[in-house]
Write a structure and sequence with these properties.
Blueprint: H1 4-31, H2 33-45, H3 55-87, H4 93-114, H5 119-123, H6 143-151, H7 164-169, E1 179-183, H8 188-199, E2 203-208, E3 215-218, E4 221-224, E5 226-229, H9 239-243, E6 247-250, H10 262-284, H11 290-295, E7 297-301, H12 313-329, E8 336-342, H13 357-369, E9 374-377, H14 381-401, H15 406-422
Parallel strand pairs: 1-2, 1-6, 2-5, 6-7, 7-8, 8-9
Antiparallel strand pairs: 3-4
Helix pairs in contact: 1-2, 1-3, 1-4, 2-3, 3-4, 8-13, 10-12
Bound molecules: zinc ion (2 copies).
One zinc ion (ZN) is lined by residues 26, 30, 39, 42-43, 149, 154.
Amino acid sequence: MVNYWIIGVLAIASVFWAEIVRDFYHVASHYWPPLYKLHAWHHRVFRPNLTPVSDTIYKQAHWRHDVPEAATMMVFGLLLWAAAYFSIPSYHWGAAAGCVYTLSFLLSAIARGCGIKGADELTDITHQPGEFLTPPANWFVNKPYHWRHHFDNQNAYYCGTFTLIDKLMGTALSLKGKTVAVTGASGTLGRLLLKHLHKAGAKVIALTSKNEQVTLNLDGESLFVKTVTWQVGEEADLAELLEKVDILLVNHGINVHGDRSGEAIAKSYEINTFSAWRLMEIFFLTVRNNENIATKEVWVNTSEAEVIPAVSPLYELSKRALGDLVTLRRLDAPCIVRKLILGPFKSNLNPIGIMSPDWVAKQIVKQAKADNRNIIVTINPLTFILFPLKEFCVSLYFQIFSRKAVLEIKEVAEKSSVEAKIN
Ligand SMILES: [Zn+2]
Ligand SMILES: [Zn+2]
C-alpha cells in the first residue's frame, strides 16, 4: 500500500529544495566573481521603474543568469530524486515534483531568452513595471520585496520565492544607508537603538523633547547625532522632516506608575497613545511612490504591556490602546509597520528592569533584519504565546468589522504632496 502522505510531503520538500538551491545560487552570484560576471546582466537590465533598458540586454540577462540558475536547480533536484530512489524507492516519485516545478522555470527562462512575445509578462512577475499595490510581503517574495534587491541594496533581499533564507541570513531588511529617525532618543533605549542602527549602517536622527544634543558612545568615542527637538502635540511640525526619513521608530512614552489622577490619565493617553498614533499617520502620508512603498517603514514600541501586566495600570491602558490602533491601521498601511513588544529592561524610567537595554536594542535590530513584523524581546515565555495569539485574533476581528481605508490614505497623501509642492 503506497502512503500518499509521504509522497505529498516529499513533493513539497522537493519544491522547497529547489527554492533553497535558487537562493543560494543567487547569493553565490553576488559573492563569487565568475558568477557575478553573468549575474551582473540581471542587475544592468532594469531601470528603477522596472522597464528593461534594451531588448538585447534583457534576453542576454536570461541566458546568463536565469537559465543557468534553473539548470543548477534541476541538477540538484535530480540528485534529490536519485537519493530518494535509492533510499525510499516506494515513494521516490514525490521527489520528482521539484524537477517538474524547476522545469517550468527552465522553460520560461529559455522562452524569455528567446524573446518569445508575452513570456515575460506571464512568467516574470517580480520584474513587471507598474504601481506597487502592497508593501513588501513577509513570507513570499513580491515585486516590492525584490525591487529592493535591485535598487535598495544588492547585498540583501536575495530570495526568489520564499523569504526564509533572507530571514535566516538577516538579509530580509537592509538598514545600510537608510535614514532612521527615533523618538524618545534621549531615553536609555532610544540612545542604544540609535547606536545599534548606526552600527548597522543607518543614518540616524534623534527626535527628542529635551533641549540637548544627543551623543552616542561608540567604543569609547563620542558621536554627535543629528538631533531635532519637538514636543508632544506638535507632531505635524515633523512632517517635512519625515519626508526624507526611511524608517520612523516611534519610541517615546511615559510611565505614571501608581498615579491615577485625571491629569495622569490625560498625560498617559496623550503621550503613549495619541502622539504615537499621530506620528504614524503623518508618516503614512509621506508614502507616495513605488520607492516609498518598498523602503519606508514605521516601527512602534507598543511594549509587552499589550498582553502582560506592567504593574502600572495607566501605562498598560494607554499602550494597549496604541497597540490596537496600530493593529487596526496596519491592515491598510501603505508601508511596512512593525511592533516592538519589549519586556522590562533597565532604564531611567525603570531602574529595576531585568534585561540589559543594550541587548534589547541589539535584538530589535537583529529581528528587524530578519523582517519580523512583531519584534518580541522579553524573558517572559508567556508573551511569545499570548502576543501572537492576541494579535491574530484582534487583527481578524478588525478585518471583519471595519472597512478598507487604503484609498483614503492614498488620496490624502497625493493631496498633501500637491500642497507641499505649492507651498
Ligand atoms: Zn531581479
Ligand atoms: Zn542579484
